[in-house]
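Exercise 7 asks you to align residues with tokens for two separate proteins.
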Amino acid sequence: MTLRHIVSWRLVGETREERDARAAEAVDAIAPLRDSVPSVRALSLHRNELFDGDNFDLTLIADFDDAEGLAAYASHPEHLPVIDLMKRITAGRVAVDFTL
């Protein structure tokens, strides 16, 4: 079984350039979790390319063995500062979790 966790964020910023800077900051903080959190099986980040201003700006796709793996990621000491960062640089968040 694989649990897929997808999160999309609307980033703070009036211009595409400001949101690009926030996206780069988020990617720099989140991408290392792929290697530092043992329960992460796969992790990728994707910047929105079309319909700027209408779509969410950045999406995370992460895979875990199960809900316990996701919970371990959520509470991992290296993930906690990322949560604080994302709260500061985002204006909205949506998420979905499902089994593949």
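Second protein for Exercise 7:
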Amino acid sequence: MKKAVAKKVTIDDLAVMMTKGFSDVNKKIDKDIDNLAIMVAKGFGRVDERFNKVDERFDKVDERIDKVEKDIAEMKENLASTRMDVLGVGDKFVSISRHDFN
């Protein structure tokens, strides 16, 4: 087996190699960051779509609650009116106790 010929590396050669190495690493990092940014943007886009659907559902719930509140208010009015009618019936009829029949 032959021995490989060792080449002396100067400081300038080392600086060039380091710069090239860091340049390659920086390009990869930049590409990874861009990919990450795209993924995050897509993720937030999906979240926005889900929030829009949730907002629509809340709007429907609000409408239903408004209807229920209106119905309850109407029932309270009807109950008050019926109560007054029942109380009025007592005023129109003579009260007869059991002792009057004996």
